[in-house]
């Protein structure tokens, strides 16, 4: 019997903490801009909205719950999308800072990086001579000497106080094959139960490169570790590799993630003017491949989420 593919979940990472205001005039920075772009992305077909916060004065990443509160409830009121709050924040934030808003909000879903790693885009600073804000250049160049920390104990703590205690499920961000084995460790320990939502990530310096072969490696490794029926696979291609890797992953039965956190472009040499533009593009590609797009409620059912009304915002 032919394989019947599930519908494809489109996630949209709206702003992130990596890109800076100088890199794109379209990067949403203020609560109003993040709200507007999130709503547009949901209307375009994104079932999950992955959210970071920015200081509205300078555009720098912030973990301040007061800033999150200026846009997260508004997005919830205006859309049915699953709201996914970062626990990654940025490499300069402590674990306590990164968890401050998730523990307050108790969302349906949070991202969870499955290991400590070098994470950098410092070569990008060489291409920029005029910066809008004084913080940007040292922020980007400083990534060369910083590590994103998520130790086994950190991950265990997040799984307990956010997952077990708050009923939040996770987008398990896996930047390398070893992260899949870290995830398997916690499954074996009984600290994580399926269905798993594995976000496999390609093209970040410090993680797996964007070679198509790496996508196959991650998919087959996940199959061996978890069994294909026990997890949902998703693909994040950074920068110019976004659309090509997402298309390949979707053909392989995966879900997809777009957004200005992951790439500032819509195509070669063309800046994306909004997250919604990227959502509409990948949706068109998927539908032309005869793949169906999951609604937010279908995504909730596929991922075993607790529901929109069970959050604290």
TrEMBL record:
Keywords: Metal-binding, Transferase, Zinc. The lineage of its organism: Bacteria, Pseudomonadati, Pseudomonadota, Betaproteobacteria, Burkholderiales. It comes from the Bacteria. InterPro entries: Aldolase_TIM, BKACE. The keyword Endoplasmic reticulum does not apply. It holds the Pfam family BKACE. Transmembrane segments: none annotated. Its cofactor is Zn(2+). Gene3D superfamilies: Aldolase class I (3.20.20.70). The keyword Transferase applies. This is 3-keto-5-aminohexanoate cleavage protein. One of its GO terms (molecular function) is 3-keto-5-aminohexanoate cleavage activity.
């Amino acid at each position: 019997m032919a394989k019947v593919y599930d519908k494809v979940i489109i996630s949209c990472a709206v702003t992130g903490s990596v890109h800076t205001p100088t890199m794109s005039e379209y990067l949403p920075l203020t609560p109003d801009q993040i709200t507007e772009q999130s709503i547009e992305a949901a209307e375009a077909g994104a079932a999950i909205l992955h959210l970071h916060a920015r200081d509205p004065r300078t555009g720098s990443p912030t973990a301040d719950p007061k800033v999150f509160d200026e846009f997260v409830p508004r997005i919830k009121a205006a859309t049915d999308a699953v709201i996914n709050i970062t626990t990654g924040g940025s490499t300069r934030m402590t674990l306590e800072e990164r968890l401050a808003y998730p523990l307050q909000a108790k969302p349906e879903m949070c991202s969870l990086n499955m290991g400590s790693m070098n994470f950098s885009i410092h070569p990008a600073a060489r291409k920029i001579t005029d910066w809008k804000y004084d913080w940007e250049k040292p922020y980007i160049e400083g990534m060369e000497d910083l590590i994103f920390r998520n130790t086994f104990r950190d991950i265990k703590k997040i799984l307990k106080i956010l997952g077990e205690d708050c009923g939040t499920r996770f987008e398990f961000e896996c930047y390398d094959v070893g992260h899949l084995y870290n995830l398997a460790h916690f499954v074996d320990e009984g600290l994580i139960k399926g269905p798993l939502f594995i976000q496999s990530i390609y093209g970040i310096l410090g993680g797996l490169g964007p070679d198509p072969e790496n996508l196959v490696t991650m998919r087959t490794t996940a199959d061996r570790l978890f069994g294909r029926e026990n997890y949902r696979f998703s693909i994040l291609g950074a920068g110019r590799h976004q659309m090509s890797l997402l298309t390949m992953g979707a053909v392989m039965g995966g879900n997809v993630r777009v957004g200005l956190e992951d790439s500032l472009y819509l195509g070669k040499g063309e800046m994306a003017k909004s997250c919604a533009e990227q959502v509409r593009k990948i949706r068109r590609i998927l539908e032309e491949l005869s793949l169906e797009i999951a609604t937010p409620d279908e995504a909730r059912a596929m991922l075993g989420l607790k529901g929109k009304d069970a959050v604290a915002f």
